[in-house]
Amino acid sequence: MKRLNLAKTLALTLIFSIIFMSCENDDNNTSNETMTSTYLYTSNNANGNITYYNVGDMSNVMMTTLVTSSTAADGVFYDADDDMLVQASRSNMMLEGFMDTSMSSTGASISIGISGSSDMMSPRELAVNGDYYVVADNADVDGDPDTPDGKLYVYMKDGNDFTLRNVITTDIKLWGITFDGESLYAIVDTTNELAVYSNFLANTGDMMLSATKTIAVEGIVRTHGLTYDAMSDTMVLTDIAAAANGQDDGGFHIITDFMSKFNNTADGGTLAMSDQIRVAGSSTMLGNPVDVAFDSETETVYIAEAGNNGGRILAFNNIGSGGNIAPVLNYDLASASSVYLVKY
Predict the structure, then answer these.
(1) Share of the chain above pLDDT 90, in %
(2) CA–CA gap between residue 178 and residue 293 (Å, rounded)
(3) Cα 118 to the center of its chain, rounded Å
(4) Could you give the CA distance from residue 193 to residue 55 in angstroms, rounded to a whole number?
(5) What is the per-residue pLDDT across 15-70, written as a single tens digit (0 to 9) for each?
(6) Torsions phi, psi for 273 (to 5 deg)
(7) Cα separation of the two ends of the chain
(8) Using CB atoms within 10 A as the burial measure, which of 65, 108, 112, 333 is most buried?
(9) How far apart are CA 289 and CA 304, in angstroms?
């Protein structure tokens, strides 16, 4: 009888141990799972406010608008680690940083927590590499509108300040810019060309700088926005076509395996249309797509559309074959100017 009771006791002990270990493993697995959301930050030239969208669930998008002191703005950036939101103000002609914005409810006014000097004339896109913040300025440099030129303002974030380190003058017209490592890619405004400045941040003084390489992109009339996703090696470029037509002649081009295609195209050469995917047509609502963001995990392209219906934020996720496809998301945003995608 004692042996039987002992056997029962050992059996029950073993069962409870297994259950406990199973529950513990479940708890550990749950704690190790990282839940992330996807946010699209936007700026505009209508009122200078910042609107961001939680697009993690396309069927239940949540929108938040934050009121700023600017009346017009372009490039936008969000740092989730520091909960810092930055935009290039076109009314104040400076970089403006806002802290702890994730705690603000829609309609709240946010105050500048990090500021820089008012140096710029016509700030457009913003590209960030570590503590370096580079702004493309498309103001005419020499007073001759027929001369292709522009400026790249290089700022360093230091505590609560954006300090101007140097200014690069270019021999191309500027708009969209983006970093890949130490290389800065820039669209050549009023053309269908894409330029790259290798080891850009190594140029520490005020100077005139020519691009390391420039290529044309077949099928584009006039490019404006660009984004590069290193994980998928995908470049996306927008085409505003005729600036006077802001309703239906725009599009965007997707270039997969971008690095090999770019490297295999000679300086001054043309990247063939056969190496790209083009989305355009009346169903797209693309007239003047001025900026773009790309989510490689969901293969979704987000567009800041400045012209159609006065301005929209659009998203496309059926892009594999290109063509005249309708957006899966369509939100009115007057004079939309910039988009930035982040996951955290």
Answers:
(1) 89
(2) 11
(3) 24
(4) 31
(5) 444 444 444 444 444 444 556 899 999 999 999 999 999 999 999 999 999 999 99
(6) -60, -30
(7) 61
(8) 333
(9) 6
Structure tokens of 74? 């372009």
CB of 339 closer than 8 Å to CB of 302: yes
Q: How many residues does the chain have?
A: 344
Number of H helices, E strands in the chain: 2, 26
Residue type, 328: V
Helix, coil or strand: residue 252? strand
- Residue 263's alpha-carbon distances to 214, 255, 260, in angstroms, are 11, 13, 5
| Rounded Cα–Cα distance for residues 312 and 285 (Å) | 9
Both structure tokens of 212: 């390391």
Going along the chain from its start, the domains and CATH numbers come out as 34-343 (2.120.10.30)
- Tokens 């006077």 found at: 244
Kindly state the DSSP code that residue 104 receives in the 8-state scheme: P
